[in-house]
Each structure stands twice: as structure tokens, then as C-alpha cells.
Amino acid sequence: MTDAPTALRYRREARVLEVEFPGGAHFALPAEYLRVESPSAEVQGHGPGQKTIVGGRRHVGIIRMEPVGHYAVRIVFDDLHDSGIYTWVYLRELGEQQAARWAAYEDALAARRLSRDPPGRR
């Protein structure tokens, strides 16, 4: 089990969530990355191979964060997506795997001819 972060700071203008864990691990996670990797069933599906590739979220931001017990945070995005519960374990994984996950996301967008930009802003 991963310990709770020692800090969660959202930098609104940069649209980046800074997460610090005990032991010095520090991650800067863009809101767009958090949104497209949401742990919600809407994004991840209900089983292997059911993940939805979400395009058009380049400019998404975070409206608020709500604690969920002592193990997670619910992030509410300005596109009104709010069903993902980000456990401390998952936030650490997102930080540690950011480069690989982001590359896979961009490859998946390209394969589906989707854009990070919302329709009409390409």
C-alpha cells in the first residue's frame, strides 16, 4: 500500500497537479493526463481491453478535489467528469509511468485519427 501524499497542489494556470509522497517522490501531473487516464469505468471500461481513448481534452482543468476516506481523492474536471476515484497507489503509478502512458495515449489518438484538441480548435 502506498502512503498518502504529503502534498497535493493544483496549479490552476498551468493545469498541473503536483503530488508529493513520503520519501521524496514528486510528480507534476497535467490535468489532461489525469482526465484521459481516469480510473472511472467510463474511461477504463469494466474489463481488459475496454479502455476508451478520450480525445479533445487538451484544455481541461480541475474544478475541485474531494477526499475519499484516507486512501484517495475524487477529481472533478471542468468538463464535468467526476466519477474517477484516484487512490494514492494509482496516483503514484500515474507519476511513475507518465512517459510510457502518455506515449501510448498519443499513439492511440493517432491510430484513431483523434486529436487532443476539442472539435473546432485543431
UniProtKB/TrEMBL annotation:
Q: Boundaries of each Gamma-butyrobetaine hydroxylase-like N-terminal domain copy?
A: 9-92
Record keywords, A-Z: Iron, Metal-binding
A GO molecular function assigned to this protein is: metal ion binding
Q: Does the keyword Nucleotide-binding apply?
A: no
Which Gene3D superfamilies does the protein's record reference?
3.30.2020.30
Is Phosphoprotein included in the keywords of this UniProt record? no
| Alphabetical list of Pfam families matching this protein | GBBH-like_N
Q: What is this protein called?
A: DUF971 domain-containing protein
* Source organism per UniProt: Rhodovarius crocodyli
Q: What is the lineage of its organism?
A: Bacteria, Pseudomonadati, Pseudomonadota, Alphaproteobacteria, Acetobacterales
